[in-house]
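Why do we care about 3D structure at all? Because function follows from shape, and shape follows, mostly, from sequence. That is the central idea of this module. The next example makes it concrete: a single protein chain, its amino acid sequence, and then its structure expressed as tokens.
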Amino acid sequence: MNLQEYKPKVAISVGDINGIGCEVIVKALADKNILDFFTPVIFGSTKHLNFYKNQLKDESIQFFGINSPDKAVERKINVVNLWKEPAQMEFGNATELSGRLAFESLKAAAESVKNGECDVLVTAPINKKNIQSEAFNFPGHTEYLGEVWGGKPLMFLVTEMLKVSLVTQHIPLKDVASKISKENITEKVLALHESLKMDFGVRKPKIAVLGLNPHSGDNGLLGQEEQEIIIPAIQSLYEKGMLVFGPYAADSFFSPTNIETFDAVLGMYHDQALIPFKTLCFEDGVNYTASLPFVRTSPDHGVAYDIAGKGIADETSFREAIYTAVTIFQKRAEYKELTSNVLKHRELKPERER
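And the structure:
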């Protein structure tokens, strides 16, 4: 593959049609220069997308309807029309129809990547409640893709400035402490370390680990998890040659100096890491699902029912999600080529020189 010339096919799922998904998709693709870098393949309906095209009053936006993703054409906004229903959108409402269509789009887009028809997946936001069905019984995209693609997905929120991940993901706060273990922390750090090398080109990743309790337990006064679980996990990884440090108190960690020092941060639970991330990086933050055989990204926001259909949604995060997916795809290909050449070199090296 010539990475300089190859334009990856980006499969795009439309999410909940009653949210802002279709709007940010159309706005992100409205700039024709963006098509110089990849070929979009949207899984949904031109009828829904045309609503937002008309809202933008931009006649230069043209959708190219295709029957299957392998028919996608470069420099076109390709749309695989999955359903023929009229554009029955009820903005701001979590309807059964919008949940069903969200799953149909996600399923088809994910399959296109798994089958090699597209290269990466970018998902617009879903409503985690109305998408539930016998076919989709998962907390969200991350867990679903782990099932259909295989692997242990790692939720990784990324920008150029800051990257954060989690030991526990979508679970109630009352269950967090019981899910923290040396094995879980070790597994997450190893996955982070590998992703930073393979997906972001970091040669020697430096990872910060947050504590669970206030002030990282204050030497056991405010909780034993740091002393009994988190510190032993960090020490074990450090002894293996990994640059892993902590545990750091979450309330004072996210300073400019610390953010610049570390390549990634591992938090213990959802809000601990995502509140500072979304506060600092909301507009350009990207949700990346690492440790899977294929690349998936999404914008760092939800369905935003409160502004759906009003034409005021900001497409920045969705555009960044596309660029990030394309960049990671290229980085993975470079990493594969680099490590493959190293192995070949070792195999060909004369025995006396080994």
